[in-house]
């Protein structure tokens, strides 16, 4: 893959100079959805699919950017002097946003660079192709310009780019999971404190299967910001009767005691999901540490029901994939993953049942939705790196 990228880079930008090669993974969240901006825990892992990048430093302030995923857009030429929030609707906004975020932290780059990327993550699938590109850009800036930021810093700068340059009010999970990825481990992250630990994912005779609805979605045009605002208002109402910093501070029992303070039944449902999903995530990681894969799967299923009924972010496509998965032999757990409203499901399926699972769930989906879903058997990989 990287050889193909280098070949196209030299066709587009010419040979010569020091050409550097990079990879940044995608991510899937095993459990803990819509908790990252509510002060709760998440449990994502980096994948072996992701975004390849080739870069070469320039001597002027020009940026030349090309994506093999958007060949029709062609090469985008701009300069470091033209980077400002809200000025770009192309894929390049994720690259420019990270350059801008580094600058906001006092890490200005004096010269531009030529850049080519190729993503193996389906765009709009909910496997964080945008965060993968952001963290890739941060990795390139560190390498080309000698910045000594930690990878946790790169994650935070990438989130800043997404929030204030791209305009999506996302939490830290996607960028952190990618920047801090570790092979065969998931990251148990407290999003309120950024304290984290790696937990080995031992699936013993099972694998992670991603189901892609092929219904495109983007955080910016979804109801993501609306859900976040509903939770923030619910938190303010709770804070009037109980001093808590976030919904993630509450146990289920504490929430039930204070929930009458939330005036709207809809906001009450949103907050209930945030609180109970956080508790589910804590219990799920404990179950995995105790090699209780059946309990982990049961909590995944519970998570989807809450996302469907309380948070209302699933929709017909995701529900069809998950509900068909629940009917199949060898399925330990299945749920939507990511922001919702399309995108992907994550399933843990026993090895001997994977082929039958893909066939049966794919058939059920096509019959109900009218077009095909795609399936990927994935492995948990490391974080970003220079190749």
General description of the model:
- 41% of the residues lie in helices and 21% in strands.
- By secondary structure, it is of the alpha+beta class.
- It has a 6-stranded mixed beta sheet with strand order 5-4-6-3-1-13, with helices on both faces. A 4-stranded antiparallel beta sheet has the order 10-11-9-12. A 3-stranded antiparallel beta sheet has the order 2-7-8, covered by helices on one side.
Please give a handful of descriptors for the protein shown:
387 residues, alpha+beta, 4-stranded antiparallel sheet, 11 helices, 13 strands
Give the SSE map.
Layout: H1 2-13, E1 20-29, E2 41-42, E3 44-57, E4 62-67, E5 76-79, H2 92-104, E6 113-119, H3 129-145, H4 151-166, H5 173-179, E7 185-190, E8 195-200, E9 206-212, H6 224-239, H7 252-258, H8 265-289, H9 293-309, H10 316-326, E10 331-337, E11 344-350, H11 354-369, E12 374-378, E13 385-386
Parallel strand pairs: 4-6
Antiparallel strand pairs: 1-3, 1-13, 2-7, 3-6, 4-5, 7-8, 9-11, 9-12, 10-11
Helix pairs in contact: 2-3, 2-4, 3-4, 3-5, 4-5, 6-8, 8-9, 10-11
């Amino acid at each position: 893959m990287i050889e193909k990228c280098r070949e196209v880079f030299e066709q587009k930008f010419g040979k010569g100079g020091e050409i550097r090669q990079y990879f940044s993974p995608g991510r899937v969240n095993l459990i803990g959805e819509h908790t990252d901006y509510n002060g709760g825990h998440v449990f994502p892992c980096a994948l072996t699919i992701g975004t390849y990048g080739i870069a070469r430093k320039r001597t002027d302030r020009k940026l030349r950017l090309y994506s093999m995923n958007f060949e029709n857009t062609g090469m985008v030429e701009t300069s470091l002097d033209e980077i400002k929030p809200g000025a770009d609707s192309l894929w390049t906004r994720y690259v420019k946003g990270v350059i801008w975020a580094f600058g906001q932290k006092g890490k200005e780059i004096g010269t531009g660079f030529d850049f080519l990327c190729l993503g193996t993550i389906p765009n709009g699938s909910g496997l964080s192709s945008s965060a993968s590109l952001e963290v890739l850009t941060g990795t390139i800036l560190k390498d080309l310009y000698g910045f000594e930021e930690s990878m946790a810093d790169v994650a935070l700068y990438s989130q800043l780019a997404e929030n204030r340059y791209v305009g999506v009010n996302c939490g830290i999970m996607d960028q952190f999971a990618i920047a801090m990825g570790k092979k065969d481990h998931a990251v148990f992250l407290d999003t309120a404190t950024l304290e984290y630990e790696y937990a080995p994912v031992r699936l013993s005779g099972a694998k992670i299967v991603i189901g892609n609805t092929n219904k495109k979605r983007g955080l910016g045009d979804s109801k993501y910001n609306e859900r976040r605002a509903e939770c923030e208002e619910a938190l303010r109402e709770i804070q009037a009767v109980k001093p808590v910093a976030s919904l993630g501070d509450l146990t289920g029992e504490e929430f039930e005691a204070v929930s009458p303070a939330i005036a709207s039944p809809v906001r009450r449902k949103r907050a209930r999901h945030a609180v109970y999903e956080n508790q589910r995530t804590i219990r799920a990681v404990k179950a995995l540490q105790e090699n209780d894969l059946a309990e982990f799967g049961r909590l995944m299923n519970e998570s989807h029901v809450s996302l469907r009924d309380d948070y209302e972010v699933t929709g017909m496509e995701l529900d069809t994939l998950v509900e068909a998965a629940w009917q199949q032999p060898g399925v330990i757990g299945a749920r939507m993953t990511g922001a919702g409203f399309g995108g992907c499901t994550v399933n843990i399926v026993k090895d001997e049942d994977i082929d039958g699972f893909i066939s049966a769930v794919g058939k059920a989906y096509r019959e109900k939705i009218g077009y095909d879903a795609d399936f990927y058997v994935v492995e948990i990989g490391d974080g970003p790196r220079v190749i």
